[in-house]
Design a protein that fits this description.
Elements: E1 6-11, E2 16-23, E3 26-34, H1 46-68, E4 77-83, H2 87-104, E5 108-112, H3 113-119, E6 141-146, E7 151-158, E8 161-167, H4 173-183, H5 191-198, H6 221-237, H7 241-272, E9 276-280, H8 287-300, E10 303-305, H9 317-328
Parallel strand pairs: 1-4, 4-5, 6-9, 9-10
Antiparallel strand pairs: 1-2, 2-3, 6-7, 7-8
Helix pairs in contact: 1-2, 3-9, 4-6, 4-7, 5-7, 7-8
The structure holds 5'-O-[(R)-(carboxyoxy)(hydroxy)phosphoryl]adenosine and zinc ion.
Length: 347
């Protein structure tokens, strides 16, 4: 009988402390402790994030083990996010993983967070045998990775062969959502709130100019400035403008961000003659983006892959599944490893 492989995944790159357990490629448990402390500051405060990770990491891992019914002695290897992310946050997960691996004398696996977001498509959970569940993408496919820190179009040739063919030259798509929300006076993180209000609004109510960026790259900083000027002008005329038009404003800015994202994704698909299209990262939880992809799949014959909500935003299941594939390759790291706040996808 082949050996049972149990991977403990740890994620702590930004403001979510997470642990997950995967047994022979099947997810047993996925625990995320989201830090609410940042809401009062309108964004993630790095020092507060690392302190909260320190408090959360042991309870989160403990809960994951209990829920999975797995003993520490049964774990084959521990996989952790090495980067990219906030240094203080990454240090907590990295140090924990190193200590855990050393104490149990098991292999240590480092994972690139962005690769994890993409490989989230390969997570198999208890509902994966459902007939309605989409199958996993086959190689090569394109993945639009859209999060709070990144916006990339990635050509995925294999689990470990990924090339960024387009990316943002300034702000990320998630940042565009969050900054627009902040300008409207909505709390952090504003992306999910824009999504919520947009459902009741008219996406064509207001128009915003789109960036002209060459090739497959993106830019969102001009949109933010244009949006701020628009809001300031309207509020000068009517102080209650935001309150009176909240849904239309949210629907319009969301529509514009999605249009910008889709225009380059369509170009990338055409240039590479690829019709298997995936999305990943926190912004892929956006319902407008998900609906648009469904429409494009009908129009352009794309086969689309959209992760479940819980695997879009930061989680440790994506780190554990990447760790699992690295384990199969026996791709381990050493106790000398250190976090990499900037970590290129294919390095
Ligand atoms: O991947 P993620 O959880 O963390 C990073 O690695 O950055 O992404 C977080 C980002 C935030 O900018 C958040 O506002 C955005 O994802 N986000 C959304 C939605 N859910 C999360 N943006 C738009 N609509 C959503 N439903
Ligand atoms: Zn992320």
């Amino acid at each position: 009988m082949s050996k049972t492989i149990i991977i403990l995944g740890i994620e702590s790159s930004c403001d979510d402390t997470a642990a997950a357990i995967i047994k022979n490629g099947q997810l047993l448990t996925n625990i995320v402790a989201t830090q609410n402390v940042h809401k009062a500051y309108g964004g993630v405060v790095p020092e507060l994030a690392s302190r909260a990770h320190q408090q959360n990491i042991i309870p989160v891992v403990d809960q994951a083990l209990k829920q999975a019914g797995v003993k520490k002695s049964e774990i084959s290897a521990v996989a952790f996010t090495r980067g990219p992310g906030l240094m203080g946050s990454l240090l907590v997960g990295t140090s924990f993983a190193k200590g855990f691996a050393l104490g149990l004398d098991i292999p240590l696996i480092e994972v690139n967070h962005m690769q994890g977001h993409i490989l989230a498509h390969f997570i198999r959970d208890s509902s994966s045998h459902n007939e309605n569940i989409e199958t996993v993408p086959s190689f090569p496919f394109l993945c639009l990775t859209v999060s709070g820190g990144h916006t990339q179009i990635v050509l995925v040739n294999d689990f470990f062969d990924m090339t960024i063919i387009g990316e943002t030259i300034d702000d990320a798509a998630g940042e565009a959502f969050d900054k627009a929300a902040k300008i409207m006076g909505l709390p952090y993180p504003g992306g999910p709130l824009i999504d919520k209000y947009a459902k009741e609004g008219n996406p064509k109510a207001f128009t915003f100019s789109k960036p002209q960026v060459p090739e497959l790259n993106y830019s969102f900083s001009g949109l933010k400035t244009g949006f701020m000027n628009f809001i300031n002008n309207e509020r000068a005329k009517n102080p209650d403008f935001i309150e009176q038009h909240k849904a239309d404003i949210c629907a319009s800015i969301q529509y514009t961000i999605i249009e910008i994202l889709m225009n380059k994704l369509k170009l990338a698909a055409k240039q590479n003659s690829i019709t298997q299209i995936a999305i990943a990262g926190g912004v892929s939880a956006n319902s407008g983006l998900r609906n648009t992809l469904h429409e494009l799949s009908k129009q352009l014959g794309w086969q689309i892959f959209i992760p479940k909500f819980e695997y879009c935003t930061d989680n440790a299941a994506m780190i554990a599944i990447t760790g699992y594939y690295k384990y199969l390759k026996q791709d381990f790291t050493t106790q000398g490893t250190a976090p990499l706040p900037r970590y290129a996808l294919n390095s």
